[in-house]
Specification:
single chain, about 45 residues, alpha+beta, elongated
């Protein structure tokens, strides 16, 4: 079972109950890890 199947509806309903407005479902987030001291891109997670 994928993580979306397990947690998606639980989190979505909790956010709606807390008066959030869901505008994009699913919302994709990309994570970039950047080292500013060396100006180096450490990791890109699509």
């Amino acid at each position: 079972m994928s993580a979306k199947d397990t947690f998606h509806d639980i989190v979505k309903h909790a956010l709606i109950k807390d008066h959030w407005i869901i505008t994009a479902d699913p919302l994709y987030i990309r994570l970039v890890i950047y080292q500013p001291e060396t100006e180096e891109l450490i990791q890109w997670i699509p």
